[in-house]
Amino acid sequence: MGEDRHGQTAIVFTSARTADDEEGYSRAARAMEALAAEQPGFRGMESARGADGIGITVSYWANEESAVAWRAHADHRAIREQGRERWYDWYRVTVARVERGYSWTGG
């Protein structure tokens, strides 16, 4: 928390999960997070999912080029297809450039 993300590209992935194949989904999600972390330009990821199955994952990239390269990665593309077939009812992707941000930590 607290990292300055000014100028980074944020990919906001909002989705609704199916009730199918929780184990397969969890395994794929962990693999994609690990793979993303190895990619040039990866700057971090934050994710949350509610009991209703709606989730939001934000991945941060150094720039648009590194975000596009991640989208085109063969393993990511293959998992994306599996997601469409069995893990998601729907999803939406929003791409944004971070202009400013702040954080607070209570104590």
Automatic annotation (TrEMBL):
Q: Does the keyword Oxidoreductase apply?
A: yes
Its protein name is Antibiotic biosynthesis monooxygenase
Q: Which SUPFAM superfamilies does the protein's record reference?
A: Dimeric alpha+beta barrel (SSF54909)
Kindly state which keywords UniProt assigns to this record, in alphabetical order. Answer: Monooxygenase, Oxidoreductase
- Gene3D superfamilies per UniProt: 3.30.70.100
Identify the taxonomic lineage of the organism of origin.
Answer: Bacteria, Pseudomonadati, Pseudomonadota, Alphaproteobacteria, Sphingomonadales
Q: Which residues form the ABM domain?
A: 22-81
- The regions listed as transmembrane in this protein's record are none
A molecular-function term among this protein's GO annotations? monooxygenase activity
Report the domain of life of the source organism. Answer: Bacteria
